[in-house]
Design a protein that fits this description.
Length: about 220
């Protein structure tokens, strides 16, 4: 697994204008290719009257799935520069759709490449990105008396709390950087007077402690 990747902070839209043509970039996170295609379809429906709805998406932390479409623009002038912008910024699990409303002035191949790629870049800057880091999944099992305080301290400390399950005891699923597992184990023992149990699980990607949206990918 890669140590980390960048993705969009959330779904959003940013509009630019180039020589009277409107370029509306819609970005969204997409966990699968199906989600990406569904988002493209929604944007195309929303802007059915547009001149073009060009798109690109990258799925997988290793960018294993890369697709793009020029949607009628000259070959390689829209979808490809959009895709290249996502890859250059190391953005993953993300879909971008740039809707163009033609303003009457032809931009030429170079102008189109700059406009479509630039629309994605500006949207990433404006809407923000987050870094997802490789995490070790752990399960903290604690009694009901201590569970509320433990969960609160985990959340206020910026830990990646992935789920809380109530039964005879409370199981709290947490994502941790591998290097912090030992320190976390010590903290947990101190916080619960040694009564909590810690079970190590597999690996996944998470935001990690202290991660906040940033304005550049």
């Amino acid at each position: 697994m890669r140590e980390q990747y960048v993705t969009v902070a959330g779904e959003g839209v940013h509009e630019t204008e180039v020589n009277r043509s409107r370029f509306i970039c819609a970005l969204a996170p997409a966990a699968t290719e199906e989600e990406a295609r569904a988002f493209v379809a929604r944007v195309r429906e929303r802007h059915a009257d547009a001149t073009h709805n060009c798109w690109a998406y990258v799925i997988g932390a290793d960018a294993g799935v890369q697709k793009a479409s020029d949607d009628g623009e000259p070959g390689g002038t829209a979808g490809v520069p959009m895709l290249q912008m996502l890859l250059r910024r190391e953005v993953r699990y993300t879909v971008a759709v740039v809707t163009r409303y033609f303003g009457g002035v032809k931009l030429g191949a170079g102008g189109l490449i700059r406009a479509y790629g630039g629309a994605v870049g500006e949207a990433l800057d404006t809407l923000g990105t987050v870094t997802r880091r490789r995490m070790r999944l752990v399960t903290v099992t604690v009694d009901h008396q201590r569970a509320g305080r433990v969960e609160n301290e985990l959340r206020t400390g910026g830990r990646d709390v992935r789920g809380v399950h109530y039964g005879a005891e409370v199981a709290i699923e947490v994502g941790l950087p591998e290097a912090e597992v030992a320190a976390f184990r010590s903290w947990l023992a101190d916080a619960t007077a040694g009564t909590a149990r810690l079970e190590l699980g597999g690996e996944a990607y998470g935001a990690g402690r202290g991660t906040r949206p940033n304005t550049r990918g």
